[in-house]
Specification:
This protein is an alpha/beta fold and 427 residues long. It contains 20 helices and 14 strands. The longest helix has 19 residues.
Length: 427
Amino acid sequence: MFNFLKKRKALQKTVDEDWVLKSRAFCMMPWVHMHVTQYGTVTPCCQTPWEEEKAFGNINRQSIEQIWNGKPISDFRLNMLEDKADDRCKRCYEKEKAGLYSLRIATNKDYMHHLKRVNATDKIGNCPNTQPVYFDIRFSNFCNFKCRICGPWSSNSWFNDARIMGMNPNSLRLTKAIEDEDGFFAVFKNYLPFTEEIYFAGGEPMLMEQHYRVLDMLLEMGLTKTYLRYNTNFSTFEFRGKSIFDYWKKFENIFLCASLDGTGKQGELQRKGQEWNDVVNKRKQLLAECPHIDFMLAPTVSVLNAMHLPDFHKEWTELGLIDVCEIFPSILEEPGEYNIKIFPKHIKQAIEEKYKEHYDWMMGVPSKDEERKELVANEFLKCVKFMWNEDLSENLPAFKKVTQQLDEIRNENTFDVIPELKVLNKE
């Protein structure tokens, strides 16, 4: 016990801003954040596995308070304080190896103001007299799209295709995070006055009744300064006669990430259910009705769009639909058949050349936020570094197989829509 306390005392001296920024594994998440998966499990964040054995608890069997002060999250905090890598966090570590911006890095910067919590952590890893201030609750997998890079775990629309493909999806088409919603919200309401950020993702949050229920509670309590962050497929702004604009106009701080991976037919192929002209019109509508919203394109960089992502970004910038800084490419790691590391060398070289040209173009375009523009421009180059980090060409057969299956099921032809990928079909 003495040795442990001695080590803990030394750590308290080093857990300052400089130590956090230089750390290799430390993350602020377990001191500020609660992530509830669409299966009810509570995990370190949305980037970590959802399975029970890797979770901090289950929201249907334990209260928020019990999970927040439970042994699993307390042990996790102690490991963070030792700057020990955790296998659940490998997605962030992999991105950081390529120099990419990770959720760990972003969270550490955004929640540095809660370092007092870290240094008040007791010897068993509890964080006394605190509660989560950042919630990410995936209320269900309900979604109107079946994106190629997704699956039945995040979209109930994927269920039939997954069955045909032998993916053995969950026996339930629709999964719900919370069994007793009335009971949960009665308790959750007490946490809202202390909440700094709520992240809505899916499934598709704009189609979830629970999303509007949270907004209603915030409005009833006058909590209009709560930071609302979204990840949406950008397909609908209405739900059962309710307009999301009527809500958003009452909130001061909204950050909206649109999961759009490409333009026109290429975008529609990747995000099955999308109507491209409707996407463009909705962006114009958002600009007109809620110009105060901080908007960002949030493409997932995969085999399907890596060659054309710069073209998409340039098109929307030149159309005036976004500022040049309003995009942030996020690397796909899984499923492996869509990871850009599967590309053969000559395609990687072509992508590298294109992304370097895109960097030069970006740096020459004036922006409302030059600092953010430079961050984004460098992220494009870091995607190239990630691509070269490893050769995953052994996943090419899996790419060809899943592409053929989905093309047959959905009556589509990937290689007609994205002809540059034909070379992968011959590899």
